[in-house]
Amino acid sequence: MRSAAFAPALPGKHARQHNAALAYAGIASGAVLLAVLFGLVAVTANPIFIGLAVGLLAGVLLLGNVSWTIWSIFGLGLFVVGVLPLWVEGYASKAVWGVSLLGLLLLAGTLLRALANPAVTRGAPPFVWLALSFLIYASADGLAHWGGPTQFFSGFKSYFQVFGLIFALAWLRVDEGNVRQWRKLFVILALVQLPWAIYELIWLVPIREGLRHAYPLLVPIDVVAGTFGASLHAGGANGEMAAFLIIALVFLLARWREKALTARRVMLFAPIILAPLFMGETKAVVVMLPLAFATLYRRELLARPHYALAGLLVGALLTVAAGYAYLSQQKKTLEQYVAGTLSYNVYEGGYGGRELNRTTVLTFWAKQHGLHDPVGTVFGHGLGSTSENAGGQMARRYAGKGIGLTAASRLLWEQGLGGMLLFLSILLAAWRAAGRLWRQTGDAAIRADAAAIQAALPVFAFFLVYRAALVEGRVFQIVFAAMLGYLAWLCRQQADAGPGPLSARHEG
């Protein structure tokens, strides 16, 4: 009897039946293997393994439809990941790592499609290529400074768990209807922060007040973080929520300025968006608000100074009101409040129980680097080297100091000056792309969004020295990557449509 490997090709109907039988056999075999695999995972009763397995299965099923994958990342990442630790801490809260797995599968799938068909990448703005360069640089740097698989893969996940959103929206032909729905989803995200903030303020802050004797460093009001992430026994992403709401407000005002949104809707949405800013104690609001408003209205300072002054006055009043609201929650004078803030942000006081603060963490890096360590200064010490959870080599060497306190310090320690400059170049190139889009488009809504993106970029740049969320905060990273991906998508749309009628008027 002939071996099946050398059997002659079966003609016509028999060939189709034979191929169908092989396909069914392959599907059945795969189903059996998956059943065994998921059975073994279920037996462990480990929420992390179960979450990763579900994320892997969902990711494989969704790879064929990019829009569904993005919907899943947005839905789970923005509305579930941050609030789950409020009720389920420890191992169970890590089950949301399945969202990270979805993001990494989207990244891998998008890169493979780009390699298979390079034509899909044509017309992408320069900042997308800089983002890809940063990914390659960080990966190569991590391999060159190998500190073990746990350190490397933990660092890679931390940095790039949702980077796939940038490339997918930039390179793949995403339907305009989906983009329109995603914009509405982010509006909903901005609006739901208020009910969540009220719940956290009324129910969770008193609970945390009762826990202060067991957790001396616990700040009860920090739990007011909306859906951006908090837990009963640790800190909260209140700064990230505040930054997102300020960015949402900027988008709202930019559309109203371009007459792409009615004043009635602005008056309806603005109070809901602003309210959570006054419920917590995010002192950085007094920096981010004027920064965003000044950037948004900078063009009007010369063209329409009275209009610009009105907008800046609103921003100033909101800043003063926020500062007064935060001060009223403290049992301190203004001088004591300012002195305490400067102590653990600028002077020698440590932040969050660590030896270093947001300023000294940078000066400490400078003291440890220089001509005596040129490789570490330029290239850093590798992905994940500052991670305390992953046992990074630098984190172990400088235990207790908190060298990974901010995104800037983490980038400097892990990627060196080269990686830091490359990351900054992404923001700068995105700024230029948004400015070019603003000049070229004839669509009022797109002009508004381009201006709002430019106003949001300084807020993200401020976060480099404020917190580490840009390189580890999953929810905030989704906001950042989605905005850059949306900008890339708009640039591709504009390139396909050609310059609008307003391009000549606003050129330069």
TrEMBL record:
Keywords annotated in UniProt: Membrane, Transmembrane, Transmembrane helix
Keyword Transmembrane helix: yes
Protein name: O-antigen ligase domain-containing protein
Transmembrane segments: 21-41, 47-63, 70-88, 94-115, 127-146, 158-174, 186-205, 225-254, 266-294, 306-327, 411-431, 451-468, 475-495
